[in-house]
Amino acid sequence: AMAADTNGGRPRRRHVLLFPLPYQGHINPMFRLAGVLHGRGFDITVFHTDFNAPDPARHPDYRFVPVAGVVSGPATVSIEDVVAHIVAIGGACEAAFRDRLAAVVEEYSRDAVACLVADAHLLQAFQVAARLAVPTLALRTGSAASFACFAAYPMLCEKGYLPVQGTDSQLETPVVELPPYRVRDLMHIGKNSHEVVRESMERAVAAVRVSSGLILNTCDALERRELAGLRRDLAVPVFDVGPLHKFSPVGDSSLLCQDRTCLDWLDQWPPASVLYVSFGSLACMSSQDLDETAWGIAGSGVPFLWVVRPGLVRGCEASQLLPEGFEAATRGRGMVVAWAPQQEVLRHRAVGGFWTHNGWNSTAESICEGVPMLCRPYFGDQMGNARYVESVWRVGLELTGELERGSVEAAIRRLMTDTDGAEMRARAGELKKAVAECTGKGGSSRVAIDKLVEHIMSLYK
Length: 461
Ligand code: UDP
What we know:
Bound molecules: uridine-5'-diphosphate
Number of helices: 17
Helix content: 40-55%
Radius of gyration: 22 Å
Mean pLDDT: 93
Shape: globular
Largest sheet: 7 strands, parallel
Strand content: 5-15%
Low-confidence stretches: none
């Protein structure tokens, strides 16, 4: 096929067009995928909204095509508003994307062929591409288990698991159709936002079904059973190519500037002694929760590196986020940064634990470095990820209930200094090795990337 695929004797350029959802946790895996495909000889074109636009200067090899229509983020970072925003993005830029895609395809058609990889949340992008006869692949940036949940959402409603009525006993009910989830591990949100969440999941599943394949940022060592389930239930091929950051350079798609001074600061600490604390790019807490977090960290006596993002507490200025006296109480033992080079931090030998909100990227990055987790999920798929960390891979513990300094302190000690935590760390080391086998030579993720490349080639007519 290679030899025949020429244009007047010249080999054709092969383009992959990418359209990420404009959120950090979606942009990172898409750019990591771009790195992988670029390494395989594909030309990369990235469509992007004005909101959270990537910096073209940091990717000189890629072409960037702005798509008008989305200039701002969600009204608030509540699950309702984030999901509503995600659902609205596809519609808001549909017309502009159609024009841009048509122009790009027309331009490339003289000497090249193209296929589109879009975030599964952008159903309209798949529909637009289909009308222009551009083949598509869907990237879903969460775990296989979470996508299985998306697909099972109608069943979960039918059986009465959702929407959640709010009683404690209902929250603890095991979802027998989707072990190991309990109701509280699902995207359990109030009745008011039930419809918009249902719609967003339905659209993501529809996007995958109309695509020519599903790309998942996970691997055999983490989700063999879940991947097998998806392969059984979906008519499209599934490519478990993750964790993608193992195949691509670090930190190049960060929207905020990463403070690298913390890497030097980490050098002074003994192995596995420092707690890294970060709640990702979206999670937001009350100032009371922030205070309890701060005093729990202080009280634990454990050295820490804490990412306090501007905006972590709604309506609070960056300089006023930390409680008075916190700095004095932890002087010499802690560092606070606005945004960290997370993968490098997790890889640093001094880091022995990660207090995380369990976004899928953070979870996978932690696993890859063998760092056990203190889990405090906020919303979306994070509860489900925390469930896997605690009860399937057993490389962390969940901090449940109200945030209160005493229980925060105890949980941090348990992870960082107790035998319990040491056991989790040992298992995390084993899991790291198992994942490294997937991403290493001849491993399942590498094989999946080979298959993906072959598949993309077969889509070019
Ligand atoms: N991240 C980072 N610096 C930080 C915190 C996070 O570079 O200080 C990166 C992290 O490595 C991950 C992404 O931001 O790739 C967050 O994605 P995730 O899915 O964990 O959470 P989200 O932000 O989507 O809630």
